[in-house]
Design brief:
- The complex is a heterodimer of chains A (226) and B (262).
- The two termini of chain A are 21 Å apart.
- Chain A has 8 helices and 2 strands, in the order E-E-H-H-H-H-H-H-H-H.
- Chain A is mainly α.
- The longest helix of chain A is centred in the middle third of the chain and has 28 residues, at 65-92.
- Chain A is globular and about 50 Å long.
- Chain B is 27% helix and 18% strand.
- Chain B is α+β, with helices and mostly antiparallel strands and 262 residues long.
- The termini of chain B are far apart.
- Classes of the chains: A mainly alpha (226), B alpha+beta (262).
Amino acid sequence: MQSVAVDSGQNSRVRRLHPLPIRIMHWINAVAMIIMIGSGWKIYNDEVIFGWLHFPEALTIGRWAQHGLQWHFFGMWIIALNGLVYVIYGFTTGRFKRMLLPVRWHELMATISDALRLRLSHDDTTKYNPVQKLLYIGILCTGVLTVLSGLAIWKPIQFSELLVLFYDFQTARLVHFFCMAGIVAFLCIHIALALLVPHTLVAMVTGGPAVGESATDKTSKRGPEH
Amino acid sequence: MLRTPSKSIFRPKRGISQHVLDEHRDLVQTINRRNVLRGTLSLGALTFLTGCNVSEADQVQTVLRAVSDWNDRVQQLIFRPNHLAPTYSEAQVVKPPRFNAHYDIEDVKPVDVAGWRLELAGRIADKRPWTAEQIYALPEQELIVRHICIEGWDYIGQWSGPNLRMFLERIGADLTAKYIAFRCADGYTESLDMPSALHPQTILATKYAKEPITDPFGFPLRLRTSTKIGFKNAKWITSIEVTNDFPDTYYRKEGFNWFSGI
């Protein structure tokens, strides 16, 4: 969460764009996502929802169905516990509020217009533009929905009250599938943009530029001015 | 003892200029050993995953199966002994039921009911074997419940036969034992934890849609739970054992989760 600056001889503490816990959780999540998607595709292939859609076996995890299931029910602990800590961290430190809110309509339109005219600025990566904010809010909600629909199809009887929210077993399965599709679509954009603006990728390893003077991430006011 | 620097053509005569470091201070600051190590860790984990067939490697299987056993314990905690599965109307029943086994329906070997007996073993007071006739004469319970296969498909089926708890009480089984093990005519083995066996919607099914079950679906006797995934519902049962020693099962040995509750 805090990085120690090495320049000035006196160890002044700075808060970085991505504090250490965020970076650790991000990469744990990246590995867990690969496990969940790859093994999920293996499970899906055993009984496809859409006749025209089989995932290439080379992209799936697990040789046979049971191995896909083993990976999925191993990965679920990593992704759920890591996700839980992330959500608690995001709310308690004020990171969600600071980074993701507010999303203003006119700023959103301006960003879309800039992007279409290829004039989008990447100078300040410490603040998300409204499109980024919407995408990150959307993927967080999708993540929660994925866990809930996953629980519903794992325990349709024990958690029958939860299953009812998704109508029945097959519709819950369908929701789980579309959540996966949403996550994969997000990942395509997320990874493509990170590669186009590589210092954002570096920032998720090193912490990125220093932001503000506060030594802690615990601040409820809006992010530092630049 | 201090060593005096020896003369060498590789040693600069003057001190090393520090201005390069000053010019690239920003870059140097972004490289720190801890972060590089952290990055290689994630990368290492990713390359590990690209080897597609790591699943069967012994060490990987040890870890994955240990997690699967841990998941058994979690599912036992989640299990609600008196929470009933939803039941459906006769109009929703699929006829005939959908076949499920680790082989094709053409390979089913019908059981000759004349020579068939249900053998009893383990912690049971009255171990006399049962004929099909005796079992079919027992009071029946009907269940119209959803069958959910591990593969992801499901259908609503109408099963009837003696309630398992009632049957266990009748033969004087030790209901405080941990497991019930089933052996089947095709060599299949399956076992239930006692709470699932005693669930009010667990029966020994003899009929489907009011007619005796047909050969592919377990004639003359099969298990029908409402709280387990499809493959846990053993067909063509030939023996029941009540035991405290964990009875391993055909599908668990193959790597599937044992508890497999729904």
